[in-house]
Write a structure and sequence with these properties.
254 residues, mainly alpha, 9 helices, 79% helix
């Protein structure tokens, strides 16, 4: 579980709901009209911003934001050094069946075992990495659509509420209902954009950047193994991608 996402997401919701409850009751902030226009209307509007499989996949992608991902390059550098040492001593076939932390790395090792040269392996892995970026971007665009359309539908709810209010000025009860729909619709749109989907879009973008950096480092390590470079040289090359402070901690622990 990713603690930052879990604590941030639920903490934001608790802060908003808690502030509502500080007034003594939450009923004024509950509006079926506002919920329908923002979340149901927004759902269908977001749906046609992307193909159906991408739209549905975006919900799975949002779920992955709550999971911890091991994209740290320092452990990868140590792993690639160990794999390089085994390959130089016992040959590439000795790497078959090794448990690896990422499927991208598994495919690269399998290519080397199957006899692919450095150029072919690098080209295929870079193509796969480019496809990964496209897939992730499509799902992130769906989440960003929620950020844009949530407040827009909240404004539609506001306008509907104002029309109801202006058309029933003679009945104080209906005026109050229309005003509530107007204000709550705007609030729901702001919550959807700034509490739920805005931070989620940023987290997915950050996770993609970390995964891409991990895969690029893996490619460099695999190229070193293909060239039969010294294990220490491969490790040092990958550790160059690690922040200096972290490198110093690793050196001190060694």
């Amino acid at each position: 579980m990713d603690l930052a996402t879990t604590i941030g997401f639920f903490g934001g919701i608790i802060a908003v709901v808690g502030t509502m409850l500080m007034g003594g009751h939450i009923a004024p902030f509950v509006s079926l009209h506002g919920f329908i226009i923002v979340f149901v209307g927004g759902f269908f509007a977001v749906m046609y911003t992307a193909p159906m499989n991408v739209f549905l996949g975006s919900f799975k992608a949002m779920g992955t934001a709550f999971k911890a991902h091991k994209y740290d390059i320092a452990p990868l550098a140590n792993l690639m050094s160990d794999l390089a040492a085994r390959a130089r001593k016992d040959g590439l076939m000795s790497l078959e069946g090794t448990a690896l932390p990422h499927k991208f790395l598994e495919r690269g090792i399998q290519m080397l075992i199957d006899g692919a040269d450095e150029a072919k392996m690098t080209g295929l892995l870079r193509d796969e990495l480019a496809a990964l970026k496209v897939r992730h971007q499509g799902k992130q665009d769906v989440v960003k659509a929620w950020v844009e359309l949530g407040p827009a539908y909240g404004m539609i709810g506001t306008l509907i509420g104002l029309v109801e209010m202006m058309g029933n000025m003679s009945d104080p009860t209906l005026v109050g209902k229309g005003m509530a729909t107007a204000l709550v619709g705007t609030m729901y749109g702001a919550i959807a954009a700034n509490v739920c989907f805005g931070p989620m879009a940023s987290k997915l973008k950050s996770n993609t950047a970390r995964e891409v950096a991990f895969c690029e480092a893996a490619i460099e390590g695999l190229r070193g193994i293909a060239r039969a470079d010294a294990p220490r040289a491969i490790q040092d090359k990958l550790l160059a991608r690690v922040p200096a402070a972290e490198r110093e901690k690793l050196a001190a622990a060694a």
